[in-house]
Structures are given as structure tokens and as C-alpha cells.
Fold:
Amino acid sequence: MKTITFNQKKTSQIALEFDELIPDEVYSWEKADFEKYMVPIGNSRFPLTDYFDIEVEGSAESPEEIKMILNGDYGRVKYIGTKMGAGEIIVNGPVDLHCGSQMKGGSILVNGDAESYAGREMEGGSLTIMGNTREFCGCSYIGDWRGMNGGTITIHGNAGKQLGECLSGGSIYVKGDCDILAGIHMTKGFIQIDGDVTRWPGGQMKNGDIVINGELGRLLEGFVQQEIVENPEIDGKDFSGKYIKYTGDIALNGKGRLWLDAEKNRHLLY
Amino acid sequence: MEYVLKNGIVYDPANKVAGEKKDVMFKDGKIVDSVSADAKVLDVTDKIVMPAGIDPHAHVAGPKLVVGRIYRPEDSRKGVTHKTDILRSESGFSIPSCPSTGYRYSRMGYGTVVEAAVPPLEAKHTHEEINSTPNLDIVPLSLFGNNWFVLQYAKQNQIEDLAGFIAAWLRLAKCYGVKIVNPCGSEAWGWGMNVHGLDDPAPYWDVTGREVVTALAKANEMLGLPHSVHVHPNDLGHPGNYPTTVSTMEALKDIEKNSTVRGQTMHLTHAQFHAYGGTSWRDADSGADYIADYVNNNDHVTIDVGQVTLDETTTMTADAPMEFDLYKLSGLKWANKDVELETAAGIVPVIYSGKAPVNSLQWAIGLELFLKVNDPWKVCLTTDHPNAGPFIRYPRIISWLMSNERRQEMMDNREVHPWSHRRTSLASLEREYDFNEIATITRAGPAKIYGFQDRGALTPGFNADIAVFDINPNDIDPSRNHEAIEKGFSSAMYTIKDGEILVKDGEIVKVVKSHTLWTDVKGMEEQEKRVMDRVMPDFTKYYTIKFENYQVHDKYLPNPIVTEVQAGK
Amino acid sequence: MANYEPPVTDYESIVENCTCAFCGCNCDDLDYLIKDGHVVGVRHACRLGASKIMEDMDQRLLVPMIRGEDGELAETDWDSALDKAAELIAGAVRPIFYGWSETSIETMHHGLELGELVGAVLDNQATICHGPSLQAVQNAGYPISTLGEVKNRADMCLYTGSNAMNSHPRHMARYSTFPRGYFRPRGRFDRTVVTLDPKYSDTAKMSDIWVGFEQNGDYEFYNAIRAVLKGKKLQKEFISGIPKEDVEELAEAMKNVQFGALFFGLGLTHTLSKQRNIDIAIQMVADLNSYTKWILMPMRGHFNVNGFNIFMAFETGFPYGVDFARGYQRYMNGETNTIDLLTRKECDVFMVIAADPGAHYPGGAVKHLAEIPVIQVDIHWGPSTEIADVVLPGSFVGVEVGGTSYRMDGVPIWMKKAIDKPETCRDDEWIIKEILERVKKIKAEQGALASK
Structure:
């Protein structure tokens, strides 16, 4: 087991890019290797140690044995954990764009907020965000109809617009509220939102499940009310209470399922 | 500067050199018989030496390519590379950016590519892209098969005026030859319709594909253009379309050839997409026999194949109604671009998979066509890039053609679906191409089909466009070494263009500007004037651009290669 | 008759078939009336185009300037100004080259080479206007046509989130609604004009049908039309404020035309669901093609805004917001776009070519611009000049210098030169090329120094 600790010395206005600092790349690095490393900032590279004190403890034979602890404000550090396949990253602070994007395995815990594109095109592993996220959490690359297809994203705060855009697998849990168009274009997978949702979840969805335990502001015409189900089993998970089940988006002959807490969403019944 | 390529094994089908160990010499950009003692020696002992490759049909530059690039960032992202001291960064897999297109062809030993579909209204755009594509000479073909003026001339059977129109429009658009796509079908698409077969008239115009193809072929021969009409027949991609293809060829059977530089009066392009039997995709099977038999028994037709490579790619064709059908099958994003008075185009991403029965059938039909057409001078290697697959897969196709063992293996171990052998005769075809035949279908054949008099052969006086591959033909069994063949043809040991070494050991060492080939017809001045007098009133009324701003100015062709043709001679 | 202006008769020569350098219509039928080396009258153009062309000397930037220690712009010579610009660019860590939509493709070539050399972000006005349209195109497709198809065939023209009468005054006159086309010989009388807009705009006023759905209701409205096209009976009485019967009626009408054309503007791109409004409109148009023929088209604003997107796509694979910082191109909305980089205060040198961010950007972005070096290449004084540190006076494409542009439908046009530029100005192409050469020199010196 090897623990790599970053303690922030100073922040940068121009974002740092951490795509080369994932457990898969750095598991064999010693302190001296980090001290040699030049981190991309804009069109240049600068010594990593200008920005962080780095401690390395223990040893590792493989990325699985890596624990990276990042202390400080990472609100200007992009691509944390991008494409990582194994190991553990804990960030004690906020993170910038693309945290956990294209992640294949391992885990990331963010004790703070995450900027947009957290968990973009995730294939496996787990990403936990204790704060809020902005737009396009768990989405696809622009233009691609294949989005996140595995792994789990858990957001303890609120989620921004277009959560799980083009979702094609995996699960996303939001403990707080969620903005418009969650699960837009999704083809597979599972989204659960415990708080309230403003408008239009599931727009243009083809398949998959969206569960909303809070109140929904507005529903699209593309969803057809089917029945009220008590204690449903959704995507292999048991739920208690009454849920209104809709299917849609019929504009695409979609077979997606939208489950709304029946008590909180009486206003949408017809 | 003088060079000798020493001791290579040369394949130069046009000069009937098939695997001889000999030196190839060039000086000041041209092939020569002899050089002085000062000539620089490039040792290529026991390596394959061929003329540089010529791609007779691809989509590499122009408006629909750019729509593809704009709307498929997920494809552009796939091929991104870091810039180097001499190369710009690349992008794209199925629709590479212009610089990437030039680099990748160059690495494969290619020197010339035909851009097969230029709408004259947007020809400036095509020429801009050609100028941004390095290391290649590009040959644009102009679209005529759904042009409103052509429809009228064809209906009235005014061949001489049509010839005048073609002469004028090739000059306006700075193009090399005549392309016909789904004649009357793309016009029907203006109303969201299509035509079915050769005798279904375009709505409102009362003219059929048969009349259009025949008239254009006659006019093409009246002018004696270096290339014949280049035909993408009706019903592309529809099960049961082979009769349409055969009747299109038959319709042009009796047209008299007026050219000494080529053998055919019709080039049938991406024949694979036009060789389907059955009535629907449920019962579809191969119609390759019918196409191959016709080509074997008639000398007026040549074909290129449009081989499916089993990749995720981007289809794009001026056959817009077909693309909409494809969109409805796949549900993936649909782009379309209709061009006033001239043509239409559709673009849809497609995932060709060996697991899919239909794609496997298409794969097998393409190979059948290669293997069943007996004369390699009549068939060319293409993927109709990017429609059936990206051009970077040519080496893989070569490896399939040279190895029956590999083909059988793919069918046996289910790399392709059983439809590939249940519904075609591919499993029974043991023919394997040799290196000379490969040189024919990728170099000498296309050069002859296009009537090129300066490339495609290692004839003294020709451009020193040469490719050397790190393969020793006397020491390899292509049948058993398909991987080595693919690798060898993927990265040229040398690519030489106009006597300059552009690629060495698979790496680009020099980047040069491309040339644009176009045909300037002389001797039709009177007809052209008559045509312009007739066309101008309608042009002014129905186009949305002024005639002065319609034409392609010389500025857009900084490096032209003009083929002058004396009409009727 | 207070507004009557007599026709211009006092001119020396006419240059015909000039192309208007204003909006994305790129009308190429203008006649310039020339006197004393100036355009004194313009025939055929709309008021927007004519005034831009004729008032070419209004607040014209004529000499290079550098902002001094005192905070004031001071006139200087070309060499000093270009050297200063090159020095700033060569030393930048996160440079952005923004604009390009009112200059020629020929200029862009040099700009791209410079961007690739130093690792800059290249972006154009799409980032603040039709960027969402491009994103939607990337998600949902792009069923378009050239404008002549509309003129010759369309029997329904539908404008949504676009007030073409004001923003693109000749669009309806020259391309869509009024002109007589081959299959529409009676012009306006052969077409139905529909406007979907919360606002009763000038375009709505002259339409046959106006549907004034509620603000931000676009996505829901199009979703309902798609549901109707799939045969669904609508449940809610009102969809985005429109009675369901009206929605059904409109869907039916759209199904039953021969050729429909949907034109959309910033009213669709900049309401609540942003790119998803376009996304669903594109899919609606695709749905309609199962019944009849429909196309759609973004109403592009500047005369070469589409040109930049096309140019970047064929050169780099991506249409706008292309970041070369790492030595290869990256395209990621929200990360490699100008506004995000400015509001995040990441950009450290900003070059603006033929655009006015000072007038168009959100406050936060302009605030950051005021804090960093800004190089301006333009022909007119504007808010951006007030925050510029180096000002390089260019020339007027399509009037004083020729250049290639792409119309909103992708038709390329060579915009020819009609008059000479002011002696002290330089062509945009020359300016960018000069900066490129000077940056190359600095980089070579740096390289030589580093290798010692």
C-alpha cells in the first residue's frame, strides 16, 4: 500500500491538468519523481512542486495499492482521476472539470463541490461527491450517443442540468435536488433523485429508469402515465411506497420508465 | 536531383513488369531511363517498388465532408495526434481533417485521390479543402446526374448542347470529369421522395434515370473526356438492386467510345452497394455474380468495389434519400444537405459489425466482386471512403485479397456472421491476388480508367510518383502472413511524389502542397455560348447566387494540372 | 414623406455583384456606387447592410495604437505595434484568438497557424450565439439545404426564435418567403409563413400563423408536436401556454406541406433548455421527413461566422472553441470556449479579430478583459477599443479587400474588392501573417537560447 499526499502550497488562476497523475501512471513514482514532474498549465508546463508539497509513504506494486489524498482547493485542477483504472483518490476540497471522467475502476471521493462533466463517459468504479455538481454529470462526449456505461456516481448535494445525458449504463444517485433534463437521451442505466426536480426529466430517452422521490415541477407530453405501483422493484432495487409509473419518451417510441413518488406528485396525475 | 532506387522488386503492370528485380531512376521529378554517376542511391534491395497509389473514388474534400466533421466531434476526437516539428496535429478516424487525410494517404504510398462528388455551387469549398490537404494530387469529379439543366437537355435529347454544358461547367467548377449519382433520385429527394429503378421519372421533370445516364454518357464521349461517366446507379443499398445496376450498364452498352486513353465508357462505382439480391434485408443475398458476369463479358464497364471494412464509420453520399432510409434503420443522427438545382447529400454514422448479418453479407459481396471479376484492370480497390470504411483500411483489404486462408478463418471463427458464407459463394472462392494484381487494382488500373498520361506507371517521362514497401515478395507467403501484408502496405518505406521523398520508413519527412487536376475542353466554344444564352435566364431566376460569384476563380487552384481536351478528337 | 431619401445620382462608377459583409445572408447582388474612392450608395442592400458599407469611415480606426503607461492609447508605427502584439502572444500561457466571423477565410489560415504554433484557443462568435445550435447538431443531426431549395420549393416557411424582418432583413425577400421560385411561381402567395415566438415580432406580424408560446417553453412545445406526430392524444389542456388543439392543428399543417423550411435564431438557442431546444427541433424535422420534406437552418448572424466553423472543421476536425494548448486540438464545451475561460479568469492574452466582445460579452467576461492585455484587429472604434492595449487597423472585407466567406447555408462566396483601403490601414490577412512571422522569430530565438 502506498499513500501519496498532496498538500497545496498555492493555487493557480489558470487550471492545472491532472490527467497524467492517476494511480495507473504514478503507482511506482517516488517523491523524487513527483518533484521532477512538470504539470500542464495552459500551453506550458510548470513544476508540480510549485503548487504542492508531496509526501509518499509505503510502496506499491500496482495501481490497486495506491491511495492519493489531495488536500486543498482543487477548483482549478481539471481531469482528476481521468481514465483511472484502479486505486483510490480522496480530494479534501472542491474539484474542477472532468473529475472521474472516462474512469474505468477504482474510487474517487470528493469532499467538496465538483464542476461540470464529473464522471463523463464513466465505464466503472465509483465517484462520490459530497457537495454539489454542475452540468453534465455522468454525460457523454459531445456528439456521442454513448455516454456513461458503468460504475456509480453518488452526489450528496444537488445536481445541475442534463445529469446523465446519453446515459447508457451504470447508476447515478442524487441525494439533493436536480435541475432540468436529467437523463436526456438516455438509452440504459439508472438515475435516482431524492430531492425535487425542476422540469422535464427523461427528454428524448429511449430506455432505462429514472426515479424521483421528491416533487417534479413539469413533465413532458412525451411521457404516458401507466399505473400506480406500490413498493416497486426498479432496476433490481426494492422501493417502498407508491410510485406513478410513466413510459416515454414516445416521441422516439422510447421504452424508458419514469417513476415519481405518488404522494409528492399528485399534481401531475390525470 | 537524381535518384536511383536500387535493386527493388518492381511491379509496374502498365509496363508489364511483374516482380522483376531492377532499378528505378528519376530526375527532376520525372522517371528517367538513366541517371548520371552522381545520382543518389536509395537501397531498396528486395523491397516492393510500385507506382504511387491512385484512389479512384473517395470522399475527402467538400461540403458534405465538413458537415460530417462539424457534427461528429466524437469521430474527430478518435484520431487526435500531437503535432511534430513538421506535422500538424491530426484528427478523425472515418472523417479525418484535411491535413490528416493527406498524411495518412501519403504514409500508405498513395499519391493521387479522386474526390468523387463536387456540387458546382459549392466547388470553391471543395477546392479550399483540396488546398489544405497536403502530399496528394486530387481529382475532383463534378455532379451532373440531378442538375436541372441536365434533366432538360436529357429529356429533349440535346446531346450536343449537353456536351457544351458539361464543358462549360467543368471549367466553372474546375473539375476533371462527370459524376452521376442516383440519377433523378436526388432530385426526387427535393420532395422527400426517391425514384426506384432506371425508368422511374423524377417528379415534375418527366425524365428518367435511363435518359439522364445515356445522355450524359453520349455527351461525355462527344467531348472525349479523359474519364468516362462515373456512375453511382439508382437503388443504392437496397436489397434486390442488382437488376437496376445491370440495366444501367446495359443502357450504355452501345455507346461508342471516343477516347484512346481509357478502355471503358462507364465506370460503375462502389459496386458492392449495388450488388444485392433478395427482396428485403430478411432474405437478401448476393447479386455479385450478375455484376461480375456482366463485367467479365463486356469491355465497356470498369468498377470499383466499395469494400466494407467492418468499422464504425460515417456514410456520406449524394444519394440523400438512401441516407434517410439508413437513418431510420439506425436511429443515429441524420445530416442532410440539398443543393439547389444540382444535387442532395445525406450523412449518417454507421457501425459496420461482423456480428451483424447484413454487414457481414456486404463484406462478403465486396470480396466476391474482387475475386469474381477476372481481369484486374477492370476492378479497383476502394472503400468508397468513408462510406464502407475509412481508406486507412486498404492494406487490410489487400491482406484479405491475398489470403484465402484469412478469409476462411474469419468465417470459421465468426469474426463475421454466417450470412457471409450462407448467402454468398465467398467460401468457395480460392482465388488469391498476387502482388502484380494488387499493383493493378491500386495503381495501373485506376490510372488507365482516368486516362492519366503522367502517373500510375514507372514509364520514363511520367511523374516520379513511387511507393516502396518493406516487403520481400520472394520471402513471404501472403496467404499465411496476412498481418505482415497489412502492416507492410500500411506504412510505406518510401513514398515519393514528383521526385521528392515525402515518407521514409512510414514517417512523413516532407510536406508539400497538393495539385488539383481538371479538364479544359476546347473546341466547344459555339455550343457553350448557345448553352449560356439558354441557361442564364433560368440561372438568374432560380439560383440564389449571381453567376459572377458562382464560378471558381483561378485563385482557388494555386497548383493546377490541366488536361486539355479537343472535343470530338 | 419625412423619411424619403432621394436616390444617389452623384457617383462615378458602379461595381456590380458585390457581396454584403453584414449578416449570414451574404447577399451577393449588391451594386456599389463609387465616388472619390468611397462607396456613396448601395443598391439592393437592406438598411443594415447599406449603412455598414457606406459608413465605412465612421469611427474608422486608421493608425496602429498602443496603450501607454498613462493608460491612454497612443498612435504608433506598424512595426512597433506588431512587435508588441507578437511579444504578448509569444509570452502568453493561455491565449485566446477570438472573432474571425467578419474577416476572410484567407485571414483565418494565418490565425490558425499562429494558434497551433503557440498553443492558443481559437474561437468565434458561435460561442456566444449559435454555439448551442452546433452542439445540438452534434447530438441530433443537421438536415439542411441551400437557400435556393427553399426559394424554389418551400410552401411553408417557419421562423422560430428569430425575427428575420429585423435581424436578416433580406432573408425573407431574397431566399424564403417572397421570391418567386421554380415550383412557387407566385412567391409569397404560394407559401404559408409561420412564426413561433413568445414575442409578437415584426416577422410574426407578417406571418399567416403566429404561435406565441410562453418563454422558456420551447422544449416542451416541440416535445408535444413530436408526440402528436407519433399519434399521441395530448393530455394537458395547454402546452407551454398554447391550447392543445392549436398544437395538434399546427402539427397536422406541418405534415401536409410539400416542402417545409424551419429557420431558427437566438430565441431558440438562449432560452432555458439551450441546445436541447435545437436538438428536439432537429428531431422534429427528422420526424416530419417521414411524411414529407422538411429542412432546417440556423439564422447565422455574421457573414462569415459559418465560414469559421467550416474552416476549423476541415482543418482541425472541430468547429469552434478549439484548444491547442497541449500540442493537439481539444474541443470541450464549457472548457475550451472563450466565455468560460474569461469568466474563470484563465485567459492571459486576448486577441480579437473583427469582433466586438466589449459590446457583446457578459459583464464578468468583459471585466477580465479589462485586466489582461487585449490586441484588437478591426476597422471601427468600439467598446473593445476602450479595453484594447494594441490596436491594429484592418481593412473591410468585401469592400476594400477580397476574401472567401460562407453563407449561412454553407455556400462559399468570393467577396470581391471594390475600392482601395485607407492608406494607413493594412489587410487583416497581412496583419495576422506579420504577427505570425514575428512570433516565429521570437520562438526561434527562445529555442536557440534554450539550446545554449
